[in-house]
Design brief:
By secondary structure, this protein is α+β, with helices and mostly antiparallel strands. The protein folds into two domains: 3-228, P-loop containing nucleotide triphosphate hydrolases (Rossmann fold, 3-Layer(aba) Sandwich); 247-368, Jelly Rolls (Sandwich). Helices cover 35% and strands 28% of the residues. The protein is built from twelve helices and 18 strands. The chain has helices at residues 53-61, 83-93, 109-120, 128-138, 154-165, 184-199, 211-214, 231-236, 242-251, 306-311, 334-343, 345-368, and strands at 9-22, 25-38, 42-46, 68-73, 76-77, 94-97, 172-176, 203-207, 219-224, 227-228, 253-257, 262-264, 272-278, 281-286, 292-298, 303-304, 318-321, 327-333. The strands form four sheets. It has a six-stranded mixed sheet with strand order 6-7-8-3-9-10, with helices on both faces. A four-stranded antiparallel sheet has the order 2-1-4-5, covered by helices on one side. It has a four-stranded antiparallel sheet with strand order 11-18-13-16. Strand 14 and strand 15 form a beta hairpin. Helix 11 packs across helix 12. The mean pLDDT is 90.
Length: 370
């Protein structure tokens, strides 16, 4: 991909810590969070109640201050702005969909949608009512525009809050449970809208508890007790519970292999479980009459090395980085891998089935190379 086609970072958090102080003492909600979201991405953020999801959103939107660390959004280090500068920046840069709507009760849905345009002085005054009407139509509320929030359903209030978040055409949308009060059909409309907006270049960060929605986003970020689960771990080992994923996150190491570089050689002792972060890995067998046979090409979220670690013995095939770019791997030691299977029977069963399938594939490949 040409460098000009690679999306730029839209949101960057570097070693962000947030500690709250009370009479009972200090409580750290975010523990050194590092996170990069790119332009055009539609990302879900999931975690149990109290895990730090809302605090993370407050860091991104500039609503709260980190205790330490840096937050850069759209190229702006937002905590170097004063309060009034940050409020204006937020109105123009980030559309926020709050979990409990935050619509002003004395204003109609149309007036609520116009409010960010008025505050931020975007669009000519004469254009604002039509733009607000168009946004309400986008979320299916064109016939409710002149009603007060109390006169419509909670689902319609949530849809109006989404229309308001789009009012200034911000490059970033941050949504806290945006479909929590919607029926399945209305929720589907909103998710389709977010997907379209991401396709148009906006960055969407959505907190949700709905597992069906995480399947429709392009990345799934898991937060556990104020720490982020490694995304490669989450993709490769989805049957682990949150705390097990966090434990593996703390144990893995990263290795980078340049295009074509050997990772494992056929007959080599294997003491590592490999998960693919980015790039491609080719699994190769030597042909009996010379040459080689590529039996598999693995991509991000897939893994290898499990057959030898489960059954013992040396590598049954060679593994190398694909020719089109570096392969970045997350690695776990033999001992940690076996402990993982012991701690998570579901993962052990799933990997056991994969091992059996791959052994069958290897036997078929062995017949082909004769």
């Amino acid at each position: 991909m040409p460098a000009s086609d690679i999306p730029a970072p839209a949101i960057e958090l570097s070693q962000v810590v947030k500690t709250f102080k009370s009479a009972a003492g200090e409580f750290t909600v975010l523990k050194g969070v590092n996170l990069v979201l790119l332009e055009h991405e539609f990302v879900s953020i999931v975690g149990k109640s109290g895990s730090g999801k809302s605090t993370l959103l407050n860091m991104i939107t500039g609503i709260d201050h980190p205790t330490s660390g840096e937050v850069c959004v759209g190229g702006t280090e937002i905590y170097r702005l004063n309060e009034s500068q940050r409020a204006l920046w937020r109105g123009r840069t980030v559309g926020i969909v709050f979990q409990f709507f935050q619509l002003l009760p004395m204003l109609t849905l149309l007036e609520n949608t116009m409010l960010p345009m008025d505050y931020c002085q975007v669009y000519a005054p004469g254009e604002r009512p039509k733009r607000a009407q168009d946004l309400l139509a986008l979320v299916g509320l064109q016939d409710q525009a002149h009603k007060l929030p109390a006169a419509v359903s909670t689902g319609q209030q949530q849809s109006a809050a989404i229309a308001r978040a789009l009012a200034t055409d911000p490059p970033i949308i941050v949504a806290d449970e945006p479909t929590g009060n919607l029926d399945s059909r209305s929720a589907d409309v909103i998710i389709q809208l977010f997907d379209q907006l991401a396709g148009q270049g906006k960055t969407i960060a959505m907190v949700t508890h709905d597992a069906s929605l995480t399947e429709r986003t392009r990345r799934n970020i898991i937060i556990v007790d104020g720490e982020l689960v490694d995304e490669t771990v989450g993709r490769a080992l989805p049957l682990l519970n949150d705390r097990q994923m966090l434990q593996v996150t703390r144990l893995i190491q990263r290795q980078t292999f340049q295009p074509g570089a050997a990772i494992l050689s056929e007959g080599q002792a294997v003491d590592t479980f490999y998960m693919i972060d980015s790039g491609q890995v080719e699994i190769v067998l030597k042909a009996r009459r010379g040459g080689e046979l590529v039996v598999a090409r693995l991509g991000p979220g897939e893994f290898f090395g499990e057959v030898e670690l489960v059954y013992g013995g040396d590598s049954v095939a060679s593994a190398r980085a694909g020719a089109n770019g570096p392969a970045i791997l997350a690695t776990l030691s033999h001992r940690a891998f076996l402990q993982l299977l012991s701690d998570s029977p579901l993962t052990g069963d799933a990997i056991g089935k994969i091992v059996q399938a791959r052994l069958a594939e290897n036997r078929a490949a062995d017949r082909r190379r004769r």
